[in-house]
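[09:14] KT: can someone run the structure on this one? pasting the chain below
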Amino acid sequence: MQRDPRAFLWDVREAALAIQTFTTGLDVTAYATNQLVQAAVERKFEVIGEALNQLSKLDASIAAQLPDLPQIVAFRNQLIHGYATVNPSTVWTIAQSSLPSLITVVQALLGEQA
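[09:31] RB: done, C-alpha cells below
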C-alpha cells in the first residue's frame, strides 16, 4: 500500500519545526559547540531529505512544487553517507536561511492536499 503524499509533507514540516525548536536561542557559535544539538538537527535534516526523496518518487507533481528539492536530497546524502564533512556553520546557515521558506511551502501544500 502506497503512503499518502501528505504523510511525507507532514514529516518534512514536523522535522523542520523541530530544527527550529532545537536552535531557538542559539547563535552559530553556540550551535557549533553543542554536539547534541548538532546531532539532533542533522538527524532531522536527514528525515527531511528522505521524505522529499520518497515524495519525488511517489508524486512528482507535488515534489516539483518544492524549491531546491534535489539540493535538499543531496544534503541528506552528504549527512548520511559522509561524502564530505559538513561544517556546522553550513548546517546552521541552511537551518536559518532556507528552512523557513521550506516550512511555508510545505504548509501551503498540506493545505492544498487536505
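[09:33] KT: thanks! The chain has one domain: 5-113.
[09:34] RB: yep, looked fine to me
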